[in-house]
Write a structure and sequence with these properties.
The chain is of the alpha+beta class. The protein has three helices and three strands, in the order E-H-H-E-E-H. The longest helix has 10 residues.
């Protein structure tokens, strides 16, 4: 079985900050304020790429049409 196109589903803090192009400190702030979906396993924090994608969709600003 080949998994050439298997992408990583769960990301750590560093990977998520890179994905979102934000500082790690900003990500920790968002976690503490419950502004971003995350998974906590003991002291380990992970981010589900599917949840992050859906969360980003909710952050879209609709295009404003000029008349």
């Amino acid at each position: 079985m080949e998994n050439k196109h298997l992408e990583k589903r769960y990301l750590n803090i560093k990977e998520t900050s890179t994905l979102l192009d934000i500082k790690i400190s900003t990500l920790y702030c968002w976690i503490s304020q419950h502004k971003i979906p995350y998974i906590k396993i003991g002291k380990l924090v992970k981010f589900d790429t599917y949840d992050i994608g859906k969360w980003l969709e909710t952050k879209k600003i609709a295009e404003k049409k000029l008349i």
